[in-house]
Amino acid sequence: MIIDKLYDAVKEKGNVCLGLDTDLDYIPLEFKNQYADDGEAILQFNKKIIDATLDVVAVYKVQIAYYEALGINGLKAYSATLKYLKEKGAVTIADIKRGDIANTAKMYAKAHFEGDFEADFITLSPYMGMDTVEPFMSYLKSGNKGVFMLVRTSNGGSMDFEYLETAKGNKVYEEVGERFQNLGESVLGQCGYSAIGAVMGCTHVDEVAKMREKLNKTFFLIPGYGAQGGTAKDVALYLKNGNGGVVNSSRGILLAYKNKEHEGKSFYEAARLEAIKMRDEILKYSTAKEN
Amino acid sequence: MIIDKLYDAVKEKGNVCLGLDTDLDYIPLEFKNQYADDGEAILQFNKKIIDATLDVVAVYKVQIAYYEALGINGLKAYSATLKYLKEKGAVTIADIKRGDIANTAKMYAKAHFEGDFEADFITLSPYMGMDTVEPFMSYLKSGNKGVFMLVRTSNGGSMDFEYLETAKGNKVYEEVGERFQNLGESVLGQCGYSAIGAVMGCTHVDEVAKMREKLNKTFFLIPGYGAQGGTAKDVALYLKNGNGGVVNSSRGILLAYKNKEHEGKSFYEAARLEAIKMRDEILKYSTAKEN
């Protein structure tokens, strides 16, 4: 199952999820200017980053919004980026945060698990309820695909509705997490995690131990590292024996070439060094925790 | 403001929102076979439907999932459909249900309020909280754009999280609705409704009077009519003096040509007749309610 492939990738390469949220402004001018088309510039930038990080990154997350913003050309680059990652044997997450009723969800499944925009995992928003995930289940049961449900996100606004206390004394996000862990029982991998993962931001370390224990079969996609405030020490609390989660970094890696410490390096060499640094930082704390 | 344009469109043309959820399978074979490309077939089908209904439909809702499912070609048809609607002066809703953190939301705003995929309104999912809507506010304040937040959807799964009871004794969807009505105060149109509307399914008529009263400045986008069980009588409860809401129908109108009563008619003539029937049905009850 794809979740086992992700689990093995973490074992082999560490916990880094590289977010290809490639903003045009992130691309060094002299590189961008080689390409007449913006979509092409983004694609070539992505390829350089991918080539330089394949052996130190567990999974790539492609945020579709950055490509949609450039219209059809951007989406061609999105499609080509996913195809390139597939060719290279990398695990991919399409960060699309869809969530809709049955017929529409079926179309989203077709869009993002097949054809031009095919990815291994997609992110989904749970607001509309459990039946919005139903149309994806046959793909999950095939073993080739997985999803990450938004459970507790890393932004400040997560307090507004995710953190609402229910009459039963739970938070909304706890209820969401539990419902999807239960659904995941039907699509468990050999690694012990299910094909239904959870987005679990590392910006609130309160209650993390409780969540890690409750959602013990749920693989975490962890945003919020770096710029948003999450540290390697925080992140370690979201892992189990160093696995069971991947930690996303986008700007931190894509823009590493702007850091003083990487001066003189190409953008992709700097990205590689930054990914290694992040991997090792997380490893240090997640290993320390075990001992 | 665009919400005033929508309000006026309802006054002039009734409450029908035509959902262009155009599945390839909806298109009559003899029409589809004229086009080598599936995207082109969908676009030409949409144009015929649009031309036949412009004077009896308040607004068109284009569900992006159906186009994404066909990849790049599908999204070209999506883009061209929105451009055609704009040329014709129609009000448009892009049903995209996005919802993401600030930087990403900015990209979505650029994607769907500018460029290839520009629409007048977009739908947004509230799960991640209020700050996910912030990047759209400058567009709303310009007067040219609006959003519909998912509040209470029409599917069975809406019971799972939208209906969770909070410690304060509210439902989650009530909390969501109120928060966004309050935010909408800063973008009120002359018609009394704000540029922040709500998706409010007509499949649960319980509590509708309470919601209509509480969310008195919130324009409703109402799914669930027809196939999902909502009737014209139900829908009337969601309106205020016959305005303040539009009622979506997709398959009911697009597939009207398969109904016995429209035998011998073209698909677009049948669509027109069905839209008129729906408009008049709703009008009957919403007017009856006033008297």
Task: Summarize the structure in words.
Chains A, B: Its EC number is 4.1.1.23. Chains A, B: Pathway: Pyrimidine metabolism; UMP biosynthesis via de novo pathway; UMP from orotate: step 2/2. Chains A, B: It catalyses: orotidine 5'-phosphate + H(+) = UMP + CO2. The structure is a homodimer of 291-residue chains. Chain A is α/β, with parallel strands linked by helices and 291 residues long. The first copy, chain A, has a single domain (2-290), classed as Aldolase class I (TIM Barrel). In chain A, 43% of the residues lie in helices and 14% in strands. Chain A contains twelve helices and eight strands. An eight-stranded parallel beta barrel of chain A has the order 1-2-3-4-5-6-7-8, surrounded by five helices. Chains A and B meet through helix 4, helix 5, helix 6 and helix 8 of A and helix 4, helix 5, helix 6 and helix 8 of B.
Question: In a few lines, what is going on in this structure?
Answer:
The structure is a homodimer of 291-residue chains. The first copy, chain A, has 291 residues and is an alpha/beta fold. Chain A has twelve helices and eight strands.
Topology, element by element:
Two copies of one chain form a homodimer.
Chain A: H1 2-13, E1 16-19, H2 29-32, H3 38-53, E2 59-63, H4 64-68, H5 71-87, E3 91-98, H6 102-113, E4 121-124, H7 137-141, E5 146-152, H8 172-184, E6 196-200, H9 208-214, E7 220-222, H10 232-236, E8 245-249, H11 251-254, H12 267-290
Parallel strand pairs in A: 1-2, 1-8, 2-3, 3-4, 4-5, 5-6, 6-7, 7-8
Helix pairs in contact in A: 3-5, 3-12
